[in-house]
């Protein structure tokens, strides 16, 4: 899949943290659209996608002048009080075009200069390792959350065929940990995994967050139902994993390996 790219200067970059992100003062999306195009992505049903007129995952708008705009907004926001930023809520800040365009990197450069009180970086891309030098400069004011929904590569290919391999994500968590950067593995949405999953994650990170469609899609699972995700489970004869209680099995596995206070469920695991 080759997405169509466009270049657009946004009016603003920092948006108010609302709903699931109400623990944050702001959300920050370096791009509009996302080339990873995950089958279960709830953004597919949001106005940003539905008004576009093209399928989610086939287009990406690169935000131009982003660093200049962020610097001004950040300076202004910091005058009003603490600033906590979630990057990103409706795109992946390290999707493939970031390798060339470096919008996220320039935003991080701004944030090592005008430092927010806390920055949460949500990605599923090993490209984040490129920015270890900048992330280190944020010390404990940053956490990199790497999405690892499963440890099964066949399951990844089934649900999110355009995303980076699981092994590369796990290796990236290891590199980030070795570089002293706070991390978590984010098992969200939980997908079918093996008994060894918790051990695999514990070897590379100290913290894990679990979420599913029913708690985490902002609509009690309705958005996900509308996407027809259930049919993927049915085709693979994995229906038992598409259930509001299915996360409990993964949660128990995590709790047998991670200390209890390092295992988070749903929104709590995304908070500053
Ligand atoms: S990486 Fe995130 S924003 Fe991008 S398609 Fe997947 S779930 Fe949606």
UniProtKB/TrEMBL annotation:
The protein's matches in InterPro entries, at most eight in alphabetical order, are given as: Elp3/MiaA/NifB-like_rSAM, MJ0683-like, rSAM, rSAM_sf
Which keywords does UniProt give here? Iron, Iron-sulfur, Metal-binding
In terms of SMART domains, this protein maps to: Elp3
| Domain Radical SAM core span(s) in chain numbering | 20-268
SUPFAM superfamilies named in the record = Radical SAM enzymes
Domain of life per record: Bacteria
Q: Which Gene3D superfamilies match?
A: 3.80.30.30
Q: What is this protein called?
A: DNA repair photolyase
């Amino acid at each position: 899949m080759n997405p169509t790219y466009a270049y657009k200067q946004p009016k603003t970059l920092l948006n108010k943290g609302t709903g699931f992100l109400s623990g944050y003062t702001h959300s920050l999306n370096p791009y509009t659209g996302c080339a990873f195009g995950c089958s279960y992505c709830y953004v597919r049903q949001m106005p940003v996608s539905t008004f576009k007129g093209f399928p989610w995952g086939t287009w990406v708008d690169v935000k131009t002048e982003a660093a200049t705009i962020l610097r001004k907004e950040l300076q202004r926001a910091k005058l009003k009080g603490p600033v906590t930023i979630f990057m990103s809520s409706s795109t992946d800040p390290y999707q493939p075009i970031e390798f060339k365009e470096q919008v996220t990197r320039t935003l991080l450069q701004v944030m090592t200069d005008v430092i927010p009180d806390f920055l949460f970086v949500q990605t599923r891309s090993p490209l984040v390792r490129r920015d270890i030098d900048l992330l280190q400069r944020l010390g404990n004011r940053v956490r990199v959350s790497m999405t690892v929904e499963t440890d099964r590569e066949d399951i990844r290919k089934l649900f999110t065929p355009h995303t980076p391999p699981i092994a590369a994500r796990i290796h990236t968590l290891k590199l980030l940990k070795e570089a002293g950067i706070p991390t978590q593995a984010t098992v969200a949405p939980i997908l079918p995994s093996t008994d060894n999953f918790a051990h695999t994650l514990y070897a590379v990170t100290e913290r894990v967050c679990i979420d599913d469609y029913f708690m985490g899609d902002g609509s009690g699972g309705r958005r996900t139902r509308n996407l027809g995700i259930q049919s993927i489970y049915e085709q693979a004869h994995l229906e038992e994993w598409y259930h509001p209680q299915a996360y409990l099995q993964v949660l128990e596995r995590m709790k047998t390996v991670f200390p209890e206070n390092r295992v988070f469920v749903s929104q709590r695991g995304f908070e500053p």
